[in-house]
Amino acid sequence: MKWKLTIRYLISVLSIVFIVIFLNTFILIGMLFYQQKHGIDEVTENSGEAFTRGFNKYISLENGEPVVSEEGIEALRVFGGWIQILDQNGQVQSSYLAPEDLSTHYSPMELIHKYKYMDDELNTYFIGEFESYSYLIGVPDSKEERFIFMMDPKTVFSYATKSLLAIIIVDLFIAMLVGLLFSTVLTKPVSNIIDRISQLKKRNFTVQETKRPGIYKPVFSNLNDVSQTLQAHEEERLKLEKMRDEWISNVSHDLKTPLASIQGYAELLRDQDVSQLERLEYSEVIERQSIYMKDLLDDFNLTMRLRNQEMPLTLQETRLESFVREIVIDLLNDPQFGQYEISFISDSPDLKWNIDRHLMKRAILNFVYNALIHNDENIAVTIRIHTDSLTIEDNGKGIPADDLEQIFERYYRGTNTGNIRGTGLGMAISRDIIEAHGGKVSLTSKIDIGTTVEIRLNE
């Protein structure tokens, strides 16, 4: 994988270099052709050649003699040059602003020589035509220089082709060398990233430290964070699966007992010798066991709906003091809990919460039932309304620290539950109900001192 990435990187670098060379060559050739055909406006507009070719507009004939107008003389002065007008034989007919030591006659060879080269006084010469006359414009210390090249087009083309090929080879070699050096820095971390992703795919969530991550340091840091998160989720999943298996085992065990009772008493009801009183007792047992099984299935259904947020809430503004007082009265009137000491204290008689009364009653009762069922009969439970919360306190035997961490987990049954029948869903259902209201529930407990459950809603 590493070599594949390196080769791809090198091919990309070489392709870019080749494309750049090709485009630069194409643009250079295009500019040379354009200059050859159209010239360069910024250069030719103010050049000596352009000035000379356009100077004939200042020349006219008076009495058969060529004369330069005042505008032409001023243009010469501004341009920094002088002019000599020659006849067909090279004889100077007139001159303007010209030095006195200039020749008055020029042969064709002298004109060609002056046009090609500067003279000893560093004058640059330009030649123009006006009717049958020619004129010579000289510019002292001109910034323009004229160079003459002699070349064979075939030789130049061959030389240019070889030079271009050499440039391409050298550039590609340099690009390949630089690309190889950079690829060792860039592709190795990429290869490590791909390997790490493959490990995550195989559920290997081990956090690894990478040497010289370079510019990919944030990527490796994020991969380590992902590994830690996935590891935590995996541990949570395994723990949940374990608790679910234990819950299924417990529920299966709990279901066997009522099912056995229902089956046994149903068989007894078929006996013709059973009295009417016994039939009523057997029917009550069957009904009680059936209700227990129904409650078990209802708990399972409720926790699934709460977990998937499919439980709509019917919210009502409720005065908490009267709502909780009714719950306490119902508990005290229940023969099963009439012998327990249950107290109610309200520090905030005007506290109101927007709640689903049915579900909130279920949550509070679950907490109270746990306090009563999992402790001795001399347990005392106090339900208190504070200014912004509701607490349920007991002075029971408390909850071990190991159980406290998992008390709100689904399917979990604590080590202090003994042979008490239960689904292991009550605490989880209560928590989900509170959180569905946008609130939070917390539980603190100390061995042989008691347990406190606190409910808060974000009003």
UniProtKB/TrEMBL annotation:
Coiled coil (UniProt feature): 223-250
UniProt-annotated location(s): Cell membrane
Topology with respect to the bilayer: Multi-pass membrane protein
Annotated PROSITE patterns: HIS_KIN (PS50109)
Keyword Repressor recorded: no
EC number of the protein: 2.7.13.3
InterPro entries: HATPase_C_sf (IPR036890), HATPase_dom (IPR003594), His_kinase_dom (IPR005467), HisK_dim/P_dom (IPR003661), HisK_dim/P_sf (IPR036097), HssS/ArlS-like (IPR050398), Sig_transdc_His_kin-like_C (IPR004358)
GO molecular function: kinase activity
Catalytic activity: ATP + protein L-histidine = ADP + protein N-phospho-L-histidine
Domain Histidine kinase: 250-459
Alphabetical list of CDD domains matching this protein: HATPase (cd00075), HisKA (cd00082)
Protein known as: histidine kinase
Organism domain of life: Bacteria
Stretches that traverse the bilayer: 6-34, 164-186
Keywords per UniProt: ATP-binding, Cell membrane, Coiled coil, Kinase, Membrane, Nucleotide-binding, Phosphoprotein, Transferase, Transmembrane, Transmembrane helix, Two-component regulatory system
